[in-house]
Amino acid sequence: MEAVQRASPLLAQVTPLLERVAPYVSPVAARLEPRDSPAKNVAAVNSLAQGGGGGTDFTNGAVGIPGDLVGPTGFLERLGWYREKLDGTLAASVPTLEPQRHLYALVRDFLERAGKGLRPALCIATTRALGGRAEDALPSAAGIEMLHNAFLVHDDIEDGSESRRGVATMHRRAGVPIAVNTGDAMNALAMRLFRRNVEVLGPAVALRILDEGDHMLVECLEGQAIELGWVRDNDLTVQPQDYLRLVLKKTAWYSFIHPMRIGALVADGNDRKLERFDRFGYLLGAAFQITDDVLNLTGDAGRYGKEINGDLLEGKRTIVLAHALGKVSATDRAWIGNFLSRPRERRLTREVLQLRQILASTGSIEWAQQSAVAFAEAAKREFDETAFAGVPASPDLGWPRSCVDFIVQRNA
Questions:
Q1: What is the DSSP letter of 99?
Q2: Domain boundary at 20, 48, 68, which?
Q3: What is the pLDDT of residues 149-161, one digit of tens each?
Q4: Do 86 and 107 share a domain, yes or no?
Q5: Of 30-34, 374-378, 403-407, which range is least confident?
Q6: Which of 10, 33, 68 corresponds to the end of one domain?
Q7: pLDDT in tens, 213-249
Q8: Residues 130, 33 within the same domain
Q9: Do 223 and 256 contact (CB within 8 A), yes or no?
Q10: pTM given for the model
Q11: Which has the minimum average pLDDT: 31-40, 134-143, 219-228?
């Protein structure tokens, strides 16, 4: 609408007419105005989603323009809606130049089989909930998603993973050297996306977002180093509290905390209270990662998208294993140490199943499930009391809160 208004001054004459037409009143007219006060405009549109504006329900997009602005209210439907907003920006960021076969075509293929897009959706939802525009968040959201996929390519190599998203991992299909290079290219493409914020939001805000991205990247790499070190050293002293520190570094910062912090900066480049998202993001990240650890042992392969028991084959120190190591007998502990000391290719399937049985017998799987629920409940309190305290109700605000339940129930 804003682009059309700039192309034709005649549209300026439409605004006073819209203000006299119920039930649209000011929300739609506000979309034709310059972005002087985005928070006010979005709050007005949000009031429609809650049944305002003459009692008409726009939440399912039943009435053209307002429904398009508000979007669907179901969690997965809205997640897909955020993803649709992102797809064009993400696809356009992949060069069409050569080399295609051994680089850009691999990037494009990997992105087309991407997961649900929780991280960019969280960025976009936060921006909109705080009064910003989704289109302003797209470069950052796409950069976060590109980085995430780069991490996955490299993680699969480091872990020796066999499958990802229902197909063979990239390094199995294209070879390790090409997969490493492709992951590196995705990192570079992510930086290009972040740099686009200079023209979208201005250099000062773009630099703040780049600082967030820098911290996100370094924390994740440090977390990965810690986890790889545990496997390399066959460390059997890892305790649940060590795991929870790892979760902060490897999962929470880049999957939850920084997407919200960046989304807030897109909405208001002068926001100086970004730390309000840190505790909620950490608690949500812990619930997410613990649930992921449990699903790796108990999930359905078709829904989960990764190989079941893959963490055991890779020797990862999950919270389930860390808890079990404190409960097992000396004999079982010695057997576990011997099993984990061998490379993946020398870990037999029957031994993996035996370790899975040990984890179940110690009650560690059930304990981990209960821990995930406890972290999720704490995350809900933090969401209401700190992270988004005082933010007007809207579908965009409701979506990140509903993430909590989705994360711990996502195999249902």
A1: P
A2: 68
A3: 999 999 999 988 8
A4: yes
A5: 30-34
A6: 68
A7: 999 999 999 999 999 999 999 999 999 999 999 999 9
A8: no
A9: no
A10: 0.81
A11: 31-40
**Quick one: pLDDT band at residue 28, thresholds 50, 70, 90?**
very low
Per-residue pLDDT at 64 exceeds 60: no
DSSP secondary structure of 246-286: HHIIIIIIIIIIHHHHHHHHHH-TT---GGGGHHHHHHHHH
Name the residue type at position 215.
H
> d(Cα 221, Cα 15) in Å, to the nearest integer?
51
Q: Which residue has the tokens 């050297």?
A: 177
Q: Which two tokens stand for residue 247?
A: 């979760």
Retrieve residue 56's tokens.
């008409």
CB crowding 48-72: b at 16 or more within 10 Å, else e: bbeebbeeeebbebeeeebbebbbb
Q: Report d(CA 104, CA 186) in Å as an integer.
A: 9
Cα–Cα dist 409/238, whole Å: 27
Q: Domain holding 311: CATH number?
A: 1.10.600.10
Alpha helices in 8-74 (DSSP H): 14-18, 25-31, 38-49, 64-70
Query: What's the total number of domains in the chain?
Result: 2
Q: Are residues 284 and 314 in the same domain?
A: yes
User: If pLDDT is split at 50, 70 and 90, which confidence band does 9 have?
Assistant: low
